[in-house]
């Protein structure tokens, strides 16, 4: 989450928001992750990492610039450097299939005094059951 203080002049705020709009565009977000023809090539619409990407040790999901310039892509975790296209397509299908019946945790990110004080004790039996059943 990005926050702009209320004391920032409106002109500067508009400049910051314009920067955020640009950095989250497809072209800039891709440039933040890789350099076309140096770190990846595109074949049949699929990004394929080059040997230089391995030499430069590019991370699979994020890097420092991507902490700022990462656009939302529900398939981010389906891709990693060097993955064959058929594996990527299979992973995307799994994500789509699970999305049909998955429900988001609406409380994710919420902080309450009750959870802070009672949460650890309440979560113990849940953790034990997850460990016992092999689910997380």
Quick overview of this protein structure:
The protein is mainly alpha-helical.
What can you see in these coordinates?
There is one protein chain. With 136 residues, the chain is mainly α. It is 49% helix and 6% strand. The protein contains six helices and two strands. The chain has helices at 10-23, 26-33, 51-55, 66-69, 85-99, 113-133, and strands at 40-43, 46-49. The protein is flat, with a radius of gyration of 20 Å. The two termini are 26 Å apart. The mean pLDDT is 80.
Features:
136 residues, mainly alpha, two-stranded antiparallel ribbon, 6 helices, 2 strands, flat
- Helix/strand order, N-terminal first: HHEEHHHH
Q: Please tell me what the overall shape is.
A: flat
Question: Percentage of helical residues?
Answer: 40-55%
Strand order of the largest sheet: 1-2
The poorly predicted ranges are none
Number of helices: 6
Please give the oligomerization state of what you see. Answer: single chain
The fraction of residues in strands falls at 5-15%
Distance N to C terminus:
26 Å
- Secondary structure tally: strands: 2
Q: Report the C-alpha radius of gyration, rounded.
A: 20 Å
In round numbers, the mean pLDDT is 80
Structural class: mainly alpha
Give the topology.
Blueprint: H1 10-23, H2 26-33, E1 40-43, E2 46-49, H3 51-55, H4 66-69, H5 85-99, H6 113-133
